[in-house]
């Protein structure tokens, strides 16, 4: 079975969290099938705080700045060697409250995991946005080595509203593990 993979801009600003389709990168991609080993690794990650929350278009701003410490071409699928950690970092805020979000989940192939490192200092964001409340809006999330099987995967940054009652999905990030 064939399917289209979509790559949206990785470093992006988006208001009104709505999923973005993007454009097909390569329609010859095959669906990802998780191995038992990769599934076991992901089971060790904290479950997402967004499970059971109302999914809405939470007005938010999200920037995913790096994967594994490197910026990358925004329109391409990010290729990562199998057996390496996959580390996403960036920042996210809830614009409806003009505050930091209550948290960030990272959705990997449809399953949410909690980005327990949310609230990292980002004084550069507060300066850029001219709003001191955004000072602790940084996040970092690590998918442990072996957590993603060979092939293509979709990752979405999900922002939790300041009150923790709603959430919204960001754009899809496509990665290929080889």
Protein model, in words:
With 178 residues, this protein is mainly β. The chain has one domain: Immunoglobulin-like, CATH 2.60.40.10. It has helices at residues 36-43, 123-129, and strands spanning 6-7, 23-24, 54-55, 60-67, 78-80, 86-94, 99-100, 103-108, 111-114, 117-120, 138-143, 151-160, 166-177. The strands form 3 sheets. Strands 3, 5, 8, 9, 12 and 13 form a 6-stranded mixed sheet that branches. Strands 4, 6, 7, 10 and 11 form a 5-stranded antiparallel sheet that branches. A hairpin with a 5-residue loop joins strand 12 and strand 13. It starts with 5 loop residues before the first strand and ends with a strand.
Q: What would you call the shape? A: globular
Strand content: 35-45%
Helix content: under 10%
Radius of gyration: 16 Å
Total beta-strand segments: 13
Give unreliable regions as ranges.
1-34
- Main beta sheet: strand number and arrangement? 6 strands, mixed
Mean pLDDT: 77
Distance between the termini: 20 Å
| Count of all domains | 1
């Amino acid at each position: 079975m064939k399917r289209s993979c979509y790559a949206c801009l990785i470093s992006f600003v988006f208001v009104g969290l709505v999923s973005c389709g993007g454009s097909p990168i390569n329609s010859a991609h095959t669906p990802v099938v998780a191995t038992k080993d990769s599934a076991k690794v992901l089971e060790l990650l904290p479950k997402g705080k967004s499970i059971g929350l109302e999914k809405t278009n939470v007005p938010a701003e999200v920037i995913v700045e790096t994967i594994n410490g490197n910026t990358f071409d925004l329109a391409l699928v990010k290729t990562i060697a199998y057996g390496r950690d996959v580390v996403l970092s960036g920042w996210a805020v809830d614009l409806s409250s003009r505050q930091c979000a209550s948290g960030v989940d990272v959705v990997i192939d449809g399953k949410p995991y909690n980005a327990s490192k949310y609230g990292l200092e980002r004084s550069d964001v507060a300066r850029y946005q001219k709003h001191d409340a955004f000072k602790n809006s940084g996040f970092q999330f690590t998918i442990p080595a072996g957590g993603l099987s060979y092939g293509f995967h979709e990752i979405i940054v999900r922002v939790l509203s300041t009150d923790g009652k709603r959430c919204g999905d960001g754009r899809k990030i496509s990665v290929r593990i080889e």
